[in-house]
Specification:
The chain is mainly α. It contains 6 helices and no strands. Helices cover about 65% and strands about 0% of the residues. The termini are far apart.
Length: about 150
């Protein structure tokens, strides 16, 4: 005896539960837009931090050597960049890389600590407002040589 198969309701709707082409395009656009924002924020944060750390280096012994003054922040930022690249590699492999996390954390903590330690205050008095430290930490503040926006 031969049994005839009938199409089930699932066979009739093979795309059920899958996103439509419009949904896929919207998700792709959102992912790309988020990636662009993340890259812009990262670049801005690195730029602000790097410039401030170069200023700190100039205030503490490297002012007479502009090349060394601008190279000094790379000693911290290179840890962050290397760690982030290794974390991306680990993510692509769907793994966790403890060394990548340690490199990123070392560079980040060092950068934030030195940006905060380099705060000299905005009022010209001996007391430094707490907000100056907060601005130096998240994200690092721009150098004092920039014109202030009022």
């Amino acid at each position: 005896m031969t049994k005839l198969s009938t199409a089930s309701s699932r066979d009739e709707r093979p795309d059920e539960g899958r996103p439509t082409t419009t949904q896929q395009a919207a998700e792709r656009f959102t992912l790309i837009a988020a990636g662009v924002v993340i890259v812009a924020l990262t670049a801005g944060g690195f730029w602000l931090s790097y410039a401030h750390l170069a200023e700190v280096a100039g205030q503490h012994g490297l002012r007479n050597s502009p090349v060394r003054q601008w190279a000094w922040p790379a000693t911290l930022d290179a840890f962050i960049i290397a760690g982030e690249l290794l974390m991306l590699r680990a993510g692509l492999r769907q793994a966790t890389d403890g060394w990548a996390i340690a490199l990123t954390a070392t560079g980040s903590v060092g950068s934030i600590a030195l940006n905060v330690a380099g705060v000299s205050g905005t009022g010209g008095t001996g007391a430094v407002p707490l907000l100056d430290y907060v601005v130096a930490a998240v994200p690092p503040r721009p150098p004092r040589c920039w014109p202030s926006v009022s």
